[in-house]
């Protein structure tokens, strides 16, 4: 009988785009066709965003990409002022980033697993990756502990994630080299998780609310929307860099309309790129084209590019291109987190 | 120059599964291969859920399926005690169902549109469907009005959607024959939208919160999770019928783990079917197999079936099969909404 | 240890579209969106082809669809004058249709198989379907026998498949109710397999040529192209009904250009529908749109429709719709096979 | 009114993998998940093939990849003894490789084209790439001319393609730096196109056969199959590197069975990798897994890897990895073309 240790041996290692100068390779793709050419154009549009002084850059993340080795890529974007706000699924930020910051790891597995055996061993599978379920429970509980420590009131996910960064700081920092939550905490970059209960944090919240039935922390997703809209209102121009679709994509596109509704005239997202394998023909949002988004008044069509590809291969090329082009060196941090501190949204 | 009227001419009509006895057709698919056979098995598993007196049935909805003509299918499931709780994206429930309940329509369009022209005309496009943007703004505002009318405190999406049903009742009922929100209101079927700000309601909420900066309604997604978990705890057995993936899929699978965390021993979902075109190879949740979910302890593998297909074609066949088999006739409504009334969660 | 019999128990049964009047169901799809609406339009375009007296209808087949239970659908189209020529992969016509005509069957299996065990048991797997490898060898050998019996010269695939039909007639007819090869033989409907060696017949050919190194049958794919082009030249208007893509799609689209090259002015395909799940973004032919084909002068854009869906579910609906609409009742068989008999191409 | 020149301005440039040492990048992917990890494993399996002295390497090509800028990649594999035989679609070898060898080019276009206008201008579109239809006609005619010059008899595609290489040599060589047909001609590497009429050459063949109705060149696809099977019989071990699926994939997998049928005991393909975006769930061959192939006795499961990705991005990484690892430096050319010269198959 195999034990848990037999399965949890080889840890996922995060790719370091700083090590690989892919600029010449990606430049060559400009003159090809299909995904190569669209990847090249997306990389150049991202570089345009970085050169545009007026442009606030919002990164949206969906899909299980940090467990897949892409955490350090995003960390490097954060540390080098290549992104000004992040909108993410809960799984990426809590189950994966915060989880690793607590000292736990993801492991190399295989899709050809006996899932009933894995369940018996308390191993969770994400396609070809394994997680220790017992470690994940500790992550849940840590979220509950953070909630317990806070003044009972409605919080935006951004506020709570800031508290998670603070928790890490107060506990000798992350147990790993790279944590996006911690890096954003230090760099004043807000992180939003619009469906915040739909992850490990959610388990923490229900522990917290069950134990504190009348006075407790609640997670106000409306506040999230309002706060992200405020960022749009503060930033003259915006560009969005979307990995996958889902709620983060929709939410971030919607702030243009929200800004308009708040009666402060706001331009569409000037730049927009998306990496996805989703098809547009089923009508779902994840695969809907950026041209379609322009009918909604969300995205300008001049600098938009969809890239048909899976993120683990495509993101290191796009992000690596932009990193090695170096346009970020001239770029000042926007520190959008300060919008809320000044306004008193963070205590 | 074309006007808005030239584009918004032919309204989407919702298919009525009660009119088409597809049982013999779907039965024939049992002996075929590929999607036909998996569709047949999914339909039979759904029928098993309906026959299982102990089984609470949770329907999850993602993708733009009500604007595509599938609203009446879900309405018929609701009216005939074929579903006990719904977990949905906001777009389906608010931008599509509530929107139509206010008297507005979706229109037949084409993916080969000039999206810049559509934007100028205030027409929003969903692949091959058009919406009047100005009517959508009225939907946003109605949500704001409802929020304005409520006592300021954190609400679960379930509570707020119940208020939307009440709003319809107080305003002479829906302006169309079928409204899922209204039908569920009448039938005591809870509806959850875990990412509730990510839709037309979100626009209403930010209007409301902007105008009421200190005392206002907030949307507590943690409460959603807790409430849906309570349904799992009350229902001995559960079956999930998933259209598309996204947050509704993940959220509903997670309640098994949540129930376990609340230390009340709770079985996995006994039945699980999903209709999707998403691929599993990018590791994203929407296409992840139900066998993978079983490694997480969420879904039993005995009665699970993925169907590879697009919902507008597949759902009428699966739902129509179960409707015409008639097992629902013996089924009692579970009225899970009452869990919360009794506990005082609804004022 | 399991034996072959444990796996080869439940035979695939072919769906009989004549039993299910899907016209009202498919009519309802006209007013929906996404695949349902495109399915409806494709069905109506097929019905238009059947009503157009001048229109020769070419059916192209790819994907493993006969082993999946769609053989009888095509047989019914053949027997009811709903198709005038077929262009297919070799697997469908030889490994599947001729194979079953020899008395063998396909069996229900599962994608979650131990493929090494299957190999040891001489069981071949197609996703969720099993085949007895030893029976397939008999099919190979029968093709070799037919080749041995013919005058040594180059043959088009159409000629050889006609000989396969004759072989069945000379051996007391097919051992099953339905055989497309036999039905087409009786109805003078030509069948083309442009990559004819790429199937069970290919194994037969190499046995034949190895045993007859100097004087033997050869398979002239250029002759195929010339013959199919002649059909285009004889038929004033043409419509193509494509299931999947691959060589059959490309080959059949190309005959418009071929007809043009032979300097006889020939119109484009007037009608064109395709059922496919292939994506267009990788630039491969199978997923390339019919609008793209119109840039090549192959397909008119007025009556073209792609349907995004898997054939086992979609084909019974489209073919069933056209069957029950009954426009074929007024339609005369075109018997394109006679073009070649008169010209002496068949001995 | 736009003219042809307005569209045919920017030529596709083929990527040169020799310029980009992607080894460190691809090595980093070993420790990630999803496509990155499978890409890494495929690259390492390809390197294993190159190190295995007994292993003959067969490259299969499908999809419109040479028009997309991948021609030089394949040329470099040929010139550096990294491939021993090629099995391809006709479009890649004739419409794209031979076409460019005649001095013509592919041009950068867009999928958002007015295809009716393109048709009027004699511009053919492949997703986001343009071709001059009039130049393609010259390519057709050149194939006809070559056929006219040959002794009338059945030819394998391999033989005819060798004649195309000779034609280039006799006409001062290719008009471009790289031609796979010419490189293979010089290096004695056989190229097979099992559906040879399904491309520009097919147009040439029908011109030739129409003008020479009784004595003419024919294309014997059975001979193709026999010849490729002979290569399998001569080569102790084989590895297959598949780009896309289609007939080239199926044909090349089938030679294992063919070798077995010719009663000479032949091992399965020892190594097999495939790059594809095709789904397995529709049962079509292009997306069928290599594990499924092992049930047919075609592929060993020890060293097989599917990579889910689009070729323009993935192939430069896999081929570039193997090139820069340099294992090919120790590798001797197998010159399988000589099998047929010695046996007199080529006049």
Could you describe the 3D structure shown?
4 copies of one chain form a homotetramer. Chain A is α/β, with parallel strands linked by helices and 347 residues long. Chain A is built from 15 helices and 11 strands. In chain A, the strands form 3 sheets. A 6-stranded parallel β-sheet of chain A has the order 7-2-1-9-10-11, sandwiched between helices. A 3-stranded antiparallel β-sheet of chain A has the order 3-5-4. A two-stranded parallel ribbon of chain A has the order 6-8. Chains in contact: A-B, A-C, A-D, B-C, B-D, C-D. Chains A and B meet through helix 6, strand 4, helix 7, helix 10 and strand 8 of A and helix 6, strand 4, helix 7, helix 10 and strand 8 of B.
Sum this structure up briefly.
4 copies of one chain form a homotetramer. With 347 residues, chain A is of the alpha/beta class.
| Main sheet record of chain A | 6 strands, parallel
Read across the widest sheet of chain A, the strand sequence of neighbours is: 7-2-1-9-10-11
End-to-end separation of chain A:
53 Å
Strand content of chain A: 5-15%
Overall number of strands of chain A: 11
Entry keywords:
homotetramer, 347 residues, 15 helices, 48% helix, disordered C terminus
Compile the SSE list and pairings.
Four copies of one chain form a homotetramer.
Chain A: H1 4-7, H2 23-28, H3 34-51, E1 55-61, H4 66-79, E2 85-88, H5 90-101, E3 107-108, H6 115-120, E4 123-126, E5 129-132, H7 133-149, E6 154-155, H8 157-170, H9 180-187, E7 191-192, H10 200-211, E8 218-219, H11 221-234, E9 237-243, H12 246-261, E10 269-276, H13 290-295, E11 299-308, H14 311-325, H15 337-342
């Amino acid at each position: 009988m195999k034990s848990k240790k037999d399965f949890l041996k080889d840890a996922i290692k995060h790719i370091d785009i700083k090590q690989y100068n892919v600029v010449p390779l990606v430049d060559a793709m400009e003159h090809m066709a299909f995904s190569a050419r669209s990847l090249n154009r997306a990389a150049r549009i991202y570089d345009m965003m970085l050169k545009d002084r007026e442009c606030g850059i919002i990164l949206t993340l969906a899909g299980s990409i940090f467990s897949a080795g892409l955490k350090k890529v995003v960390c490097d974007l954060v540390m080098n002022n290549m992104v000004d706000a992040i909108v993410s699924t809960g799984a990426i930020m809590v189950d994966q980033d915060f989880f690793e910051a607590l000292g736990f790891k993801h492991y190399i597995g295989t899709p050809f697993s006996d899932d009933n055996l894995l369940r018996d061993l308390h191993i969770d599978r994400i396609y070809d990756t394994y997680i220790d379920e017992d470690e994940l429970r500790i992550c849940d509980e840590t979220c509950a502990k953070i909630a317990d420590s806070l003044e009972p009131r409605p919080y935006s996910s951004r506020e709570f994630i800031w508290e998670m960064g603070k928790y890490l700081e107060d506990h000798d920092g992350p147990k790993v080299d790279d944590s996006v939550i911690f890096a954003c905490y230090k760099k004043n970059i807000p992180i939003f998780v619009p469906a915040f209960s739909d992850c490990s944090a959610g388990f923490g919240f229900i522990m917290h609310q069950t134990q504190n039935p009348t006075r407790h922390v609640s997670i106000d997703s409306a506040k999230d929307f309002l706060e992200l809209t405020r960022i749009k209102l503060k930033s003259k121009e915006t560009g969005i860099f979307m990995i996958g679709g889902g709620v983060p994509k929709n939410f971030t596109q919607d702030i243009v309309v929200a800004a308009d509704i708040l009666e402060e005239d706001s331009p569409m997202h000037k730049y927009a790129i998306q990496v996805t394998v989703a098809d547009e023909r089923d009508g779902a949002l994840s695969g809907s084209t950026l041209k379609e988004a322009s009918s909604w008044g969300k995205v300008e069509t001049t600098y938009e590019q969809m890239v048909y590809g899976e993120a683990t291969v495509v993101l290191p090329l796009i992000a690596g291109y932009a990193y090695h082009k170096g346009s970020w060196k001239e770029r000042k941090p926007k520190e959008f987190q300060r919008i809320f501190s000044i306004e008193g949204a963070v205590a």
